[in-house]
Design brief:
The protein is built from 11 helices and 8 strands. With about 250 residues, it is α/β, with parallel strands linked by helices. An 8-stranded parallel beta sheet has the order 3-4-2-5-1-6-7-8, with helices on both faces.
Length: about 250
């Protein structure tokens, strides 16, 4: 698999995190990429989606996922199906099907196999007073579960310009690094600001925000984040993500 598996969480509220992830996935689809969302609660996407409830659906050809629909599956369902794939020697076929896999989990993580098996961890962090505490506690949890040397990519939300977001990001990462002995590899992904009125309009239409408001400022945030994610993607995975999470 020559693309990446991302583990996504943060201290932003679930609706807004879901909105950002969803629009990243739709932009990826527009770029002719095949994406898969592994969603812990299966209620993340606000738009029409394909909830994968049988083993056949994951292995159907790419036309099945046409019309910009996003395939999503719960972790529990996926792990059940993976046992069947292994018996049928079809895990590699499944691995080759998707360019990018996004795992969404709430901040109170209980299954640390997921961030361990991911290539990159994406944190959506608000510009609030508790953000330094959130980042420290999250990274401390990783270290306590022997997860080290992970690339930690951060999106700053609830902020309106890049200068403020970079300053907040730099100060936060510097302070947290001084409290931890391990040096995590931090990566600035960008910033995002949510227009509540436009969000309501896109939700009522059951469309992705970037479908309702193409080329908006929010669309620009999404494109910038994807550009940052695409940097340094030359390495290949040495093992199967799907086999790791079984």
């Amino acid at each position: 698999m020559d693309d990446k598996v991302y583990f996504v969480t943060g201290n932003e509220n679930s609706l807004k995190m879901g909105l950002l992830i969803e629009n990243i996935l739709y932009q990826k689809k527009a770029m002719k990429k095949e994406v898969l969302l592994i969603d812990s609660n299966m209620n993340l996407l606000t738009t029409e989606q394909i909830k994968l409830n049988s083993k056949e659906k994951l292995l159907k050809n790419a036309e099945y996922f046409s019309k910009n629909k996003i395939p999503s599956i719960s972790l529990d369902k996926l792990q059940i199906d993976l046992g069947i794939y292994k018996k049928n020697n079809s895990i590699q076929t499944l691995e080759n099907k998707f360019n990018d896999i996004y795992i969404f989990e709430k901040p109170d993580i209980t299954n640390f196999k997921l961030p361990l098996c991911s290539d990159e961890i994406i944190l959506i962090i608000t510009k609030e007073s508790n953000s330094i505490s959130f980042l420290f506690k999250f990274l401390k949890q990783l270290l306590d579960n022997e997860i080290e040397n992970k690339k930690i990519s951060i999106v700053i939300s609830n902020i309106k310009n890049i200068e403020d977001s970079v300053g907040f990001y730099s100060n936060m990462c510097s302070e947290v690094s001084s409290l931890l002995e391990n040096n995590f590899q931090f990566n600035y992904l960008g910033f995002v600001n949510f227009d509540e009125e436009r969000i309501s309009i896109s939700l009522n239409k059951k469309e992705a925000y970037i479908q309702t408001f193409p080329e908006s400022a929010f669309h620009g945030y999404v494109k910038y984040i994807i550009e940052r994610l695409n940097l340094g993607r030359t390495e290949l995975r040495e093992d199967s993500f799907f086999e790791q999470i079984m």
